Amino acid sequence: MRLKLFFLLIVIFISNSLLAQQVNCTISGVVKDSISGQAVIGASVVIYTDTNFTNSPFRGSITNRYGFYSLPNIPEGHYYIAIRSLGYKTIIKELTIGQEQKSLRLNFALIEEELVLPEVLIKEKRDTEISNQISVINVSPELIKSLPSITGEVELFRTLQLLPGVKISTEISSGLYIRGGSPDQTLTLVDGVIVYNPSHLGNFASTFNTDAISDVKLIKGAFPANYGGRLSSVIDIKLREGSRDRLKSKFSLGMISSNFMVESPLNENSTIMISGRRMYYDALQNIFYPSSVLPRYNFYDLNGKVNWNLNDANWITVSALFGKDRLYASDRGTIGYDINWANRTLNLSWTSISSPILFSITSISYTNYTFQVFLEDRAGSSANYFTHSDLTDLTFKRETEFFPSENNQIKFGTELSIHNFKLSSSDFFLDEMERESNLTNDQISLEGVLYFSNDIKLSRYFSTNLGLRTYYFKERRKLALEPRLSFSFIPFDEFYIRLAYARAHQFLHMITRNDISLPTDLWYPSNEKIEPARSDQFVLGTETFLFNGIYQLSVEGYYKSLSNILEFNPAATFSINSKFDEQLISGKGEAYGVEFLINKRAGELNGWIGYTLSWTRRKFDEINRGRIFYPRYDRRHDFSVVLSYSFLNDWNVSATWIYGSGQAYTLPNGQFGFMEIGKSSNDVRFDYLSRNTYRLPDYHKLDLSTGYKFKIKEMQCQLTLSFFNLYNRKNPFAQYITYEVDPVSGNKIPKLKQLTLFPFIPSLSFSAQF
C-alpha cells in the first residue's frame, strides 16, 4: 500500500510541475569533445544578457555525465550563451529567442587548448548554480596517471586512498574503507552496473584500466536517492565511449604488468573501445625463482564498450567487463592452495532525450562474481578447507531527469534486480565428490526500487535536495523507506555551507572469516533469519575557494550509525552439514570524524594536503564479551600529502607521503597448558578474550615518480620511473606471539614478532600512444 501511495505522489508531483511550466523557450543540447566525440562532463552552459561576462549570468546549467544540459523557461530576447570547460576553448554564441519559440536545440563541440597552467587534478563541478552535493569529489584520470605506483602502472584505488576519509586496511587488503564502512558497504558502479569486487589482490590495481576511464565520482557519504543498496559510499565510474575521428591506440609495458587500449570509429554513427591488462608476476617467478616457496599470483582484466548513435537524441551502448585473479601455491610448499575470484558484467543501455526537458536512461545488465578457495595439506592429512561463492544479478533500470523550470530539477527512477546465490563452505572433506555435494545452498532473491529526488533552488543563496528511495525485498517481505535530505547555503561569495542526512539499507552482506589469514569473502542475502543492515548518516561541511579558485579549502564532519551488521560467530563451525546462516551473528556500530582538505587546483605545482581524525567502533554480544571494540581498519589519525610538479613541458615529478596511526589488532590475554591424549607434556595454548586491544606501530611511507614525455615519429611516448617506499620504512603488516626455547633453562619463552611487507621497490614503465 505504501509503495502504491509513493508512486502516486510522484505522478501527481510531476504532473503539477508540467502544468506549472511557463510557456517560454527551453534551450537544450549535448556538449562533446570536437575530436574524440566524448561527452564533456561538468561543462558550464551560461546565458548572459550582454557581452559583459563579468556580470551575473541570466541563467546557467551544468552538463550531466552524458554531456546533456537543459535551460528551461528562457523568455524572448537577445542573449549570449557561453560554454566553458577546463582544457577547452570557450565557445560564445549569440542567439535570439522569438516570441513563439518553445524549444531550441544547441549541440556544442569543444576544441581542446593548451593550458598555460596544468589541468586541475581534483575538481568540484560547480557554476553559478548552488550545488547541494556534499562529500562528492570528481577525480581526474590525469591525476591517476601522474602518481607513483608499486608496479609502475597507474592505479585508481591507490589514488582514492590518498583522499581524506578513505583508507585501506593493510598494504595487501583488497577494498577501500570509507568513513568507517567496510568494502562491501561501498557501491561500485561501472557505467551503472555493480561490480562486487573492484580490486585485484593487494589493491595493486582496480579492475579498471585507467586509460579506459572517462570520469570517476566518489561520494563519501549521504548520497542522493538515485544511489542505494549499500550503507556507506559510492564510487561511480564512466568508461570512455571510443574515438569518433580515427583509430587510436595506447599501450604500457611495466616490469610485472602491461596494458593496452584501442578505440576507433566503426562507421559514421558508432564507435568501439577495448582495453586489457595482464599481470605476469607468476611467470617471472617460475623463470627466475623456480624453487621458491613464495605464492604465485596473476590477474587479467578486459573492458569494452560499443556506442551506436541512432540520431541526435537517442543512442545505444553495450559495455562489458571481465576480470580474474589467481593466487596459488608453489609446487615446493607443504601446504597447497588455489584462490581465485572473477568479475563479469554486461550492460545494454538506451539513452534518450525525449524532449528539451526530459532525459532518460534505460538499461538491462548482467553481473556475476565468483570466489573460490581450496586449501590442502600435502603432507597427507584429510582435513582440508574449501569455500565457493557465486553471485549472479540480472537488473533492469530506468532513470529520468526532468527540468520543469529554471529553479527545479527532478530525478526519478525504478530498479528491479534478481539475485542468484550459490554458496558452499567446509573445513573438512575427503574427496572431490564430497566437496561437490555441499554446493546445494542456493537462493534466489528479488529486489525492487523506486526513487525520487528534487533539486530546488529557493533563492540565490539557498537550495535543497529532497529525496526518497523505497526498497522492497521479497525474501523479507520488507518495504524500506530511505529519506535523503541535503541543504546548501552561500552566506557570501565562494563560501558554501552544506548539511545532509541519508538513511540506507543493505540486503546483501559480505562476511569474512577472521580465523583464516587468506581471503574468504562470501556474499550472502538477507532472509527470514537475517535482517538487512541499516545506516543513518549525518554530514556537515564548509567549502571555500581562494585566489580566483586556485585553492580549495574544505572541512567536513560526519556521524554514521550502523545496525544489523554481520560477522561470523567466533564459535562457528564449517562442517559439511552446518547451515551457513546459523553461523552468523548481528551487531551494531558507529563511525564519526572530521576531514580537512587543502587542494591547489592549478599551477606548475599542484596537489593537496588531507587530514582525517576519526573513530570506528563495533559491538556484538558474542564478541569481546559484549564490549565495544575497534575494527582492524580503525585509524585515529590519517594524513596525506600529494604533490605534482610539471616543468620544461616534457617532465613531471610526483610524490605522495602518507601517515596513519597504528591499526587495532588482537594479541592473547594469557596462556594455559593443554595436554592431548597420548602426550606426556603440555602444549601451550593462547587465551583470546579481548578483540583488537593492541595497536600496531604507526604507518608511513614516501612514494616518488618522475615521467618524461617524448616523440618517436608520430608516436607520443612516456618513460616513468617510480620508487615505492623511498626511505624503506619497515611498516608492520602484523604482529604475533611465538615461543622460543631458552638455551639455558629449556623453558619456552614468549616472543613478540612482526611481519613487514613491501620494502623499497623501484619500477620502470614505458607507454606509447598513436
Tell me the layout of helices and strands:
Layout: H1 2-19, E1 25-33, E2 44-48, E3 59-62, E4 68-74, E5 77-84, E6 91-97, E7 103-105, E8 108-110, E9 122-123, E10 136-139, H2 141-146, H3 156-160, E11 166-167, E12 177-178, E13 186-190, E14 193-194, E15 213-219, E16 233-239, E17 248-253, E18 257-267, E19 270-279, H4 281-288, E20 296-311, E21 314-328, E22 335-355, E23 358-377, E24 385-405, E25 408-426, H5 432-436, E26 441-457, E27 462-473, E28 478-492, E29 495-506, E30 508-511, E31 522-525, E32 533-546, E33 551-568, E34 584-600, E35 605-619, E36 637-647, E37 651-660, E38 664-665, E39 670-674, E40 683-687, E41 694-695, E42 699-712, E43 715-724, E44 732-741, E45 748-756, E46 761-769
Parallel strand pairs: 1-7, 1-8, 13-16
Antiparallel strand pairs: 1-4, 2-3, 2-5, 5-6, 9-10, 10-15, 11-12, 13-14, 15-16, 17-18, 17-46, 18-19, 19-20, 20-21, 21-22, 22-23, 23-24, 24-25, 25-26, 26-27, 27-28, 28-29, 29-32, 30-31, 32-33, 33-34, 34-35, 35-36, 36-37, 37-42, 38-41, 39-40, 42-43, 43-46, 44-45
CATH architecture of the largest domain: Beta Barrel
- Count of discrete domains: 3
CATH topology of the largest domain: Maltoporin, Chain A
Can you identify the CATH superfamily of the largest domain? TonB-dependent receptor, beta-barrel domain
CATH C-level class of the largest domain is: Mainly Beta
Helical residue percent?
under 10%
Q: Strand content of the residues, in percent?
A: over 45%
Cα Rg? 27 Å
Q: Helix segment count? A: 5
How can the largest sheet be summarized? Answer: 22 strands, antiparallel, barrel
Counted beta strands: 46
Kindly state the mean pLDDT as a whole number?
A: 81
Shape: globular
| Ends apart, CA distance between termini | 59 Å
Given helix and strand content, the structural type is: mainly beta
Low-confidence segments = 116-130, 429-439
